[in-house]
Each structure stands twice: as C-alpha cells, then as structure tokens.
Amino acid sequence: MKAFRSAVVAALFLSLPALAAPVVHSIWSSHGLYVADSTGRYTVTSSNTVVAWNQSTNTAFVNFHGFAGGNEYDFELVGSPAIATTVDDITGVWNIRRNGAFICTGCTGTAYWLSQPAGTGSYFKFYDSTNVFHFSAYIDARKDY
C-alpha cells in the first residue's frame, strides 16, 4: 500500500507541470493588413512583425515595421515590463514613427487578439488609447510554452 501511495504522489508531481497553462508566447508575421494614423488608413504592402511576452513577469517585446500608403512605419513597445499582459493582449507604452519621424511617443495602447492560432487567416491588432494609431497583421507562426 505504501508503494502504491508513493507512486500516486510521484505521478501527481510529474503531471503538475503538464497541467500548467503556457505563460510565454511569441508570434511572427510577414503579412501586415492595415496601418492607420492621423492621415488615414492604409493597406500594408510589406511588413515584418515580432511579438513576444511572458504573462508571469509582464516582460514583452513588440516591433512592427512595414510600408503602407507610400510611407514607412514602425510601432515599438518601449515600456517593459508592459503595463499588463494576458494570453490575449499586451498593454503598454509605445513609440510610433512614420518615415523615421516620431508621430507618437510614450503613447499607451494595446495589442490584442494575440491568442489566435497561426496559419488560419487569424490576425492580431494594435490600437493606441485614442484609437488614432493602428496596425494589424496575420499570424504566420507562434510558439507557446
């Protein structure tokens, strides 16, 4: 009986990490959808995006670099740890540039719909708190652990 109890306890301890939900996530995209700023909303013609975050520590990295409406755009999460992170969103402080010039510095905003699966036409979005600045991109690949 004692051996059986020890086996059950060992099985429980070994299975606990498998039951824990992933808290570290990353997304990659080379297929942007739209960019918006105070001049309008534009279809992205070329882009690369990387998103990585840890829900446990709010440590996060987001960088969107793309071309839309004849302009070059960069959206960068600059405050890490972020204000808040979940499996589905990152809220933090951002710098946004158009053609190398800052058009929004230290603005707060949220990247969301980050929990979507890769390769199914799913996409994620970013909006600043004033809903003026935006980018969106398809999720080409992801890793969660």
Short summary of the structure?
This protein is mainly β and 145 residues long.
What would you say this structure looks like, in words?
The protein has 145 residues and is mainly β. The protein has one domain (22-144). Helices cover 12% and strands 57% of the residues. It is built from one helix and eleven strands; from the N terminus they run αβββββββββββ. The protein has one helix at 2-19, and strands at 24-29, 32-37, 40-54, 59-68, 71-77, 84-85, 89-98, 101-112, 123-128, 134-138, 141-144. Strands 2-3-4-5-7-8-9-10 form an eight-stranded antiparallel barrel. A hairpin with a 2-residue loop joins β4 and β5 (71-77). It is globular. The chain starts with a helix and ends with a strand. Mean pLDDT is 90; it is low at 7-18.
- Give the spatial strand order of the biggest sheet: 2-3-4-5-7-8-9-10
Compressed to H and E, one letter per element, the order equals HEEEEEEEEEEE
Report on the biggest sheet.
8 strands, antiparallel, barrel
Low-confidence stretches: 7-18
Number of helices: 1
Radius of gyration: 19 Å
Key traits:
single chain, 145 residues, mainly beta, 11 strands
SSE blueprint:
Elements: H1 2-19, E1 24-29, E2 32-37, E3 40-54, E4 59-68, E5 71-77, E6 84-85, E7 89-98, E8 101-112, E9 123-128, E10 134-138, E11 141-144
